[in-house]
Design brief:
The chain is of the alpha+beta class. Helices cover 20% and strands 27% of the residues. The protein has a 7-stranded mixed β-sheet with strand order 1-2-5-9-8-7-6. Strands 13-12-11-10-14 form a 5-stranded antiparallel β-sheet. A two-stranded antiparallel sheet has the order 3-4.
Length: 294
C-alpha cells in the first residue's frame, strides 16, 4: 500500500492548511486525533496511529521503520503503489477507501507455523467489523480477497497482504469504501457504497475494523494460535464463499488443480476434492490464481 518521507509524513489533523484535501467534500480526511483517542489507550493492542497524505505502500513503510513496534498502525489517504499477493497492484482515488497496515508480533505465545493464519484472521476481522459498522455482508474468497455483492454479483472490494518483517508480521488491508461505478479500476471491482453500505464515513469504519482485529487477534494469541480453540477456523469457513464451489487452482510452472473446494484445514490451506476422489490441500503460497471452474 507508497513511501512517505523518513519522518513518516504529517498527521492528517495537522495538515489543515492544504486546500487539496478539501477538493472532494464527500470524502473528508481522516481525523487522526479522534482515532488515537479512541484506539490508543492503556492495555490496547494499538500503540500508535499515523495517517499520511500519500505513500507507495504502507506495508513497505511500516516494515521498514527503524522504530517499528508491535501495535503500530499506518494509514494512507492515498496509495500510489499498493500491492497485493504476487506483487499485483491496487489503486484508488484519494480518500476513497481505507488503506492501512498494522504491525503484529505474536511472540513466543504462537508457534511460527501458525502465523500463516494471520491473513485469514484479518479477513474475519474486517468482515465482522464491517457487518456492524457498515451493515454490509462481506464474503471471504480464499486466501485474501474481500467480496461484496453489487447488483446481485460478487465483486472484489478489498484485499489483504501479510509480510514477515523479522519477528513481526505486517498486515496490509486495502478496502474500497466510496468508489463510484465510473471510478472502478476493473468491472469486477466493487465498493461498500455500491454494495449499499449504511455508512461510508471512514473514521467509524476504521475504528470498527481495528477493534475487531484487536479482539480476534487477542483470542487467537491467547489460544496459542490454535485456529479451532479460538474459533477462527470455523468462523472463516462460515464466511468463505469459496467453499462448496468448483475451483481451479493455477500453480507455479503452469500446472493446475481442479475440483470442489471442500474445507479449510488446520493449517489454513484450501482442501480441493478432485474428480478422482483425492483431497488435495493447497496453501496460499502454492497458488498463483484461484478461479471458478466450470
Amino acid at each position: 500500500m507508497t513511501t512517505p518521507d523518513p519522518s513518516h509524513g504529517s498527521d492528517k489533523g495537522d495538515a489543515s492548511g492544504s486546500a487539496g484535501r478539501w477538493s472532494d467534500l464527500d470524502r473528508p480526511p481522516l481525523d487522526v486525533t479522534a482515532l488515537r483517542r479512541a484506539l490508543v489507550r492503556p492495555g490496547s493492542l494499538w500503540t500508535s496511529i499515523d495517517v499520511v497524505e500519500a505513500t507507495g505502500s504502507t506495508n513497505s513503510d511500516l516494515a521498514g521503520r527503524a522504530d517499528g513496534r508491535a501495535g503500530a498502525v499506518l494509514v494512507a489517504e492515498e496509495q500510489t503503489a499498493g500491492r497485493g499477493r504476487l506483487e499485483r497492484t491496487w489503486s484508488a482515488p484519494a480518500r476513497s477507501g481505507l488503506f492501512f497496515s498494522v504491525r503484529l508480533e505474536p511472540g513466543d505465545e504462537v508457534p511460527v507455523e501458525r502465523w500463516g493464519w494471520l491473513p485469514l484472521l484479518a479477513g474475519v476481522a474486517v468482515a465482522t467489523g464491517l457487518a456492524r459498522a457498515a451493515g454490509v455482508d462481506t464474503g471471504l474468497k480464499w486466501p485474501n480477497d474481500l467480496l461484496v455483492t453489487v447488483d446481485g454479483e460478487e465483486r472484489k472490494a478489498g484485499g489483504i497482504l501479510a509480510e514477515r518483517a523479522g519477528d513481526a508480521v505486517v498486515l496490509g488491508i486495502g478496502l474500497n469504501v466510496s468508489l463510484r461505478a465510473d471510478e472502478l479500476p476493473v468491472p469486477a471491482a466493487g465498493s461498500l457504497a455500491l454494495a449499499g453500505a449504511k455508512s461510508t464515513d471512514r473514521d467509524p469504519l476504521l475504528r470498527a475494523v481495528l477493534r475487531s482485529l484487536e479482539q480476534w487477534y487477542g483470542d487467537w494469541r491467547a489460544a496459542g494460535g490454535d485456529p479451532a480453540e479460538s474459533r477462527l477456523q470455523e468462523t472463516y469457513a462460515a464466511g468463505c464463499v469459496t467453499l462448496g464451489r468448483p475451483v481451479r487452482a493455477e500453480l507455479p510452472g503452469g500446472s493446475s488443480l481442479t475440483g470442489e473446494a471442500l474445507a479449510i484445514d488446520g493449517d489454513g490451506r484450501l482442501v480441493i476434492g478432485t474428480s478422482a476422489g483425492v483431497k488435495e490441500p493447497v496453501s496460499a503460497g502454492d497458488v498463483v490464481h484461484l478461479r471458478a471452474a466450470e
